[in-house]
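S1.2 Input.
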Amino acid sequence: MAASAGKEGSPAEGATTQTVTGGSKPLHRFLRAEPKTVGIVMILMGFGLFLFGIPLKMDTVDNSSDIYSSFWLGFLYLTCGVLYILAERKPTKKIVTASLALSIVSTLGSIFAAIDFIKAMVVISHSHQYRLYNLYESENITELEAVVEQRYTSVYSLEAVFLFHSLIGGGILIVMTVFARMALRSSRTQTVVVMRNLPSAE
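S1.3 Output.
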């Protein structure tokens, strides 16, 4: 009985065994970044940029909506969020690669949009001071000053919110880019070691 058990537990002579190194599921390293949670956050940020961009576009004050910064950045964030959620449900190489590519594009878009938001805040600040300076020639300076102050303050606040979203979103995208790159690199370096049990000389 012991002899037969020993024969059953040992591999047969001439058999081939394979060992995979580098992890059996390297793409699952992308899941360490919690892509589903991050995706929900990115979708909410994208909707926020869209919704707040509508009243900003309707305002006549010069702002970042002139080049639709909040709209196309919100679209990028929405798309990234959807891809991250899909990557959590089914982490395939194609989805992770698409997430990596879109994360890089969205990161660059966040940098460009942040610069545009900062420029808009500077322009609004200068326009505000210029408008107040011209009001001193008016008789109803108190009433007009309150209206101008409220209008420019609201637009300036929206630009500040957009800038905050772009900076936070850019930081999140950089982290997701790193995790996606690590996962794809691990899948490329995955090797298979083949071991053959040669028959003994006896």
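S1.4 Remarks. The chain has five helices and two strands.
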